[in-house]
UniProtKB/TrEMBL annotation, chain A:
Major location category of this protein: mitochondrion
Subcellular locations according to the entry: Mitochondrion
GO cellular component term, pick one: mitochondrion
GO biological process, one term: isocitrate metabolic process
Domain of life of the organism encoding this protein: Eukaryota
Descriptive protein name: Isocitrate dehydrogenase [NAD] subunit, mitochondrial
From TrEMBL, chain B:
MF term (GO), any: NAD binding
Subunit-level organization: Heterooligomer of subunits alpha (IDH3A), beta (IDH3B), and gamma (IDH3G) in the apparent ratio of 2:1:1. The heterodimer containing one IDH3A and one IDH3B subunit and the heterodimer containing one IDH3A and one IDH3G subunit assemble into a heterotetramer (which contains two subunits of IDH3A, one of IDH3B and one of IDH3G) and further into the heterooctamer.
Organism in which the protein naturally occurs: Esox lucius (Northern pike)
Subcellular location: Mitochondrion
Function: Catalytic subunit of the enzyme which catalyzes the decarboxylation of isocitrate (ICT) into alpha-ketoglutarate. The heterodimer composed of the alpha (IDH3A) and beta (IDH3B) subunits and the heterodimer composed of the alpha (IDH3A) and gamma (IDH3G) subunits, have considerable basal activity but the full activity of the heterotetramer (containing two subunits of IDH3A, one of IDH3B and one of IDH3G) requires the assembly and cooperative function of both heterodimers.
Cofactor(s) needed by this chain: Mg(2+); Mn(2+)
Official protein name in the record: Isocitrate dehydrogenase [NAD] subunit, mitochondrial
Ranges for domain Isopropylmalate dehydrogenase-like: 24-349
CC per GO annotation: mitochondrion
Pfam families per the UniProt record, alphabetical: Iso_dh
Amino acid sequence: RDIVLLWPPPAKYGGRHTVTLIPGDGIGPELLNHVRELFRFSCVPVDFEVVNVCSSTEDDINNAITAIRRNGVALKGNIETLHTLPASHKSRNNLLRTSLDLYANVMHCKSLPGVQTRHNNIDIMIIRENTEGEYSSLEHESVTGVVECLKIITRTNSLRIAEYAFKLAREKGRKRVTAVHKANIMKLGDGLFLQCCREVAAGYPDIAFDAMIVDNTTMQLVSKPQQFDVMVMPNLYGNVVSNVCAGLVGGPGLVPGANYGHDYAVFETATRNTGKSIADRNIANPTAMLLASCMMLDHLKLYDYATMIRNAVLTTMNETRVRLNSPRRCSPHTFHN
Amino acid sequence: MVVIISVAGILIKSWFRPRRGMQTVTLIPGDGIGPEISTAVMKIFEAAKAPIQWEEKNVTAIKGPGGKWIIPPEAKESMDKNKIGLKGPLKTPIAAGHPSMNLLLRKTFDLYANVRPCMSIEGYKTPYTDVDLVTIRENTEGEYSGIEHTIVDGVVQSIKLITEDASRKIAEYAFEYAKNNQRASVTAVHKANIMRMSDGLFLRKCRQVAENYRDIKFTEMYLDTVCLNMVQDPTQFDVLVMPNLYGDILSDLCAGLIGGLGVTPSGNIGANNVAIFESVHGTAPDIAGLDLANPTALLLSAVMMLRHMGMHDYSKKIETACFNTIRDKKVLTGDLGGKSKCSEFTAEICQRVRDMD
C-alpha cells in the first residue's frame, strides 16, 4: 500500500490534516461542495483551506501556490483560461503545475460494472509528463503572420517520468509499459523521450516495454482498448490519450486524476473540464471528484475513510444503474457505511 | 481515292485523339499489394464504364541535379498535365537514403490539405455506428515542420510553425468542401488555451473565413473535448478542420471508429488544382502477390476522386456496389472477416455494377 516516491505530507495538527481547496470555475465549486459535505457527514479528519482563484490577476494564483506549499496537498477544480486574452496571460492550471513541479499526471481508467459502454474490461493506467513538452508556453511571432511554438523535451524530465511509470507499474503489479510517441516525425524530441524510456526499461526486466506511435495508439484504443496496460507519454499525447480513455470508460464525470511531484500532490478530475455549460444546474456527475478525494485520502494515509467513501460511491453507481448521456441528479446520495 | 484517304485520315486521327469526355488520371500503383489493388480498381471502373483513362507512372525517388531527391520527371509531368492522381501504398526502404516518398510527393505538389471522410460501413461491424464525418487536416506545417535543435546536451526543442497563409488556405478549403458536399457545420479543433499565439492565429483565420460562409455553422472545440466526445458520440461531428498534428491523431482515431485503415479513403489537395487520392494503409508485404488484399480503401479513394471531378453518377454507382457487397457478406476478403480472394471480391463488385445499368 506504500505510495511510491513521496514523503507523507507534514501538516497534521491534532490528528487533522489541512488540505488546500481551489474551487475553480464552472462545475468546480459545486462538485467540491459535495466533497466537503460528504467529508463532514463521514467525519473525515480533514480541514479545507479554501483559496479562490479568479482568472484575471496574478496574485490569486500565487496565493494558491503558497497555500499548497504550506499544506502539501490540494484538491482543485479546473480554472478557466479565456483564450481571447493575450499570450502573456498564461493558463493558471499550467502555472500551478509547473511552479510546484507536479511532473506526473496519473489517471487510472477502469471499466465500471454499473456503466454501459461500448468496450468492456478496460484497465489502463496513464502516466503523462505534466510540465514540459508542448505545454511550455514559449511562443513568438518572428515575422508577421508566422508564429513559432516551442516544444521542449529534456533528458532529465523524460528519465524522471519513465522512472515514475516503471516504479508505479511494479508497485501495482502491472505487466507492461507502453511508451506513446511520434518519433518517426519528431526524431530529436520524441526520439529523446523514447530513448530515455528504453534506458529506464532496461533496469526493470520483469516489466515488458514496447512503444507505439500516437496515431496508431488512438486507432487501437477505439478498436481494442483491452490490449493496453500502463502507458507513459509526453504532455500533449497524454492529453489526447487520457481524454480518449476517459470517453471509453464512460465520460469525464467518472474518472479521477492526480498530479504528483516530489513534494506536493494535487488531485482533480482526470479530464480537467470546466463544464461551463452544465454549471449550477445540479446535473454534473460528482463521481470523478469524489473518487479524486478518495485518492487524496489514500495519499494522506487515511485508508479506511478512502475505502469507505469509494465503496459507497461505487455501490451507489451500480445500484442506481447509471446510463450514459442522461443527466444525473447531483443531490446528496444516501451513503451506507 | 481522295474519299478513302480522307476517311483513313479521320479514322487515324480519332484513334489517337482521346475519346470525348474521357479524363486521364495518373495512376501510381505503389509497392506490395499496390499493383493488385490498382488492377482491381481499374477493372471495376471498366465495368462501370467510367470515362477514365489511366496513365501508370512510377515514383521511385531519383537523385536530381544538385543532389536533391526528386520524383522522376515523367511522373511530375504527367501529374501536372492530368492534375488528378490515384496512389497505392508506397514503401520507404530504410537504408535507401531518400526521405519518405509520401513526404516527397507532398512537397513536390504542395499538397496542403488532407481530407478523410469517415462513414460507417454497413456490414462491417464496429462498436460505433452512424459515423459520418470528414477530417480536414493542414498538411504542410504545424508540428511536422521538421525543425528541431539540440540546445544543450539533453534538451531538445521542436518548433511548431503556424502561418497565416496556410491557416487561411486550409480554412477556405474546409468551407468550400462543406459547401460543395452539403455539409452543415465546420468545427475548428485547437488548443488555444495552452498554445495561445499559434493555435490562436489558426483560429482567427478560421473565424475570418467563416464570415464569408454564413450558411455553414462554425464552431470551435478544444482537442481534448473533441477526443472525449468522439469516442462517446461521434454522430455530433460533421466537418473538422485542424492543424497538422491534431489532424494526424484525429484522422486515425476516426479511421479506427469505422474499421481501420483498410477501409478508409483519403485525398490530398494541392495548389494549382492538383489532387492525389490514396489509400493510407501499408504495403502489407506478407500478403503481396497472393491475391488476398482488400481493395476497398483504394476503391473508396477512387470514388472520392470521381466526386472531386464532378462525376457523381459513376461515383454513386461504384460506391453503392462496394457497400452492397460488404453488406451482403457473401464475398469478403480476409481482413473483413471472409475467405474470398481479392479477384473474387472485385468480380462481385463488377457484377453488381453491371447489374445496375
